[in-house]
Design brief:
Strand content: 25-35%
Number of strands: 17
Largest sheet: 7 strands, mixed
Distance between the termini: 77 Å
Oligomer: single chain
Order of helices and strands: HEEEEEEEEEEEEEHHEEEEH
Helix content: 10-25%
Radius of gyration: 24 Å
Shape: globular
Number of helices: 4
Length: about 325
């Protein structure tokens, strides 16, 4: 009886280990897929902004992690027709802006204006309450709750980023141990207020590196998002910030997934920590302490920032 019980216990433990490992594998794979899909489209609709003061400027928008995990921000537009910079002709009031060409601007579209002081502001073309329609003239009427109080009165150019642009943060929610997203524009969904949206369960760490290609070089140098590459430096509204942004040609992401069910600590045979990016120099590696009652899977990938590459043609 004792032998049979021991065999049953071993079989049950093996099944639990396999199931937990599969959970971590599926969650990690899906989390990486989601981040990769978003990062590949980052910058859509604002590629030409490099030469018009948009890249590297802080954006002001208006609307009515765990254990050092990184937070990844993604900005992209979804304009159907107008993807280039449009010059501002005049700003007759805080509720309107006159552009040189309004083709492709629809009611309900969001705008980013590059302001004369080196910053940027987001505004929203007033909706007619029904289906989006082409604006009837070169005067874009802005709605008040979703536009700055001064309108776009000091804007020199505007970019149409469509009706549903992505201004999204991705990170790890420490309370649930999952990868989550947060809409920075705080738009409601199905008349429900904006909230943290779960993306994948069982994610305990996300780390990212910038792939930097200096002018005249054909090689990438990997940098942590700190120091000269901190977000405050990259959005300082200066020429240096714009140049730095243009040098980021790829993002390398590491995701650590954890199994759902705890196991006997004595069964753990691995190291007490994980090292991420261990094929790179030590100064860009990251260490993740482990709870030895759980199993872990690490997923890493390099994602080219395609829109940063095509910006040289605009």
């Amino acid at each position: 009886v004792a032998a049979a019980a021991a065999m049953a216990l071993a079989a049950c433990s093996s099944s639990s280990t396999t199931t937990s490992g599969n959970d971590a594998q599926q969650n990690g794979s899906y989390a990486l897929y989601t981040l990769e899909r978003q990062l590949r489209t980052a910058g859509s609709g604002i590629v030409q902004g490099l030469n018009h003061g948009l890249w590297g400027c802080p954006v002001t928008a208006y609307t009515g992690g765990k254990n050092g995990s990184d937070v990844i921000g993604v900005i992209s537009g979804d304009s159907a027709l107008q993807v280039f910079s449009v010059a501002v002709s005049s700003t007759p009031s805080t509720h309107g802006v006159v552009v040189s060409n309004a083709l492709g601007f629809f009611t309900g579209d969001y705008l980013i204006g590059t302001l004369s002081n080196g910053t940027c502001a987001m505004a929203h073309i007033a909706s007619n309450g029904g289906s989006a329609t082409q604006v009837p003239s070169t005067t874009l009427v802005l709605d008040t709750p979703n536009s700055p109080s001064s309108g776009l009165q000091t804007a020199t150019n505007v970019f149409n980023i469509g009706p549903s642009p992505s201004f999204t943060l991705y990170g790890v929610d420490p309370s649930s141990g999952s990868l989550v997203s947060w809409d920075l524009l705080q738009r409601s969904v199905d008349n429900q207020p904006a909230a943290i949206t779960p993306v994948a369960d069982g994610i305990v760490m996300v780390k990212a590196l910038y792939g930097i290609q200096a002018s005249g070089s054909s090689n990438l140098t990997w940098k942590q998002p700190a120091g000269d590459w901190d977000i405050s430096k990259l959005t300082a509204g200066t020429n240096a910030a714009a140049v730095a942004m243009s040098q980021i040609k790829a993002i390398r992401v590491a995701i650590v997934a954890q199994s759902r069910l705890p196991e006997r600590e004595a069964d753990y045979k691995g190291e007490p920590k994980l090292t991420l990016f261990k094929d790179l120099p030590a100064d860009v590696q990251s260490s993740v302490p482990l709870d030895t009652q759980f199993r872990y899977q690490v997923y890493e990938t390099t994602i080219p920032v395609r829109n940063a590459m095509v910006s040289q043609f605009y």
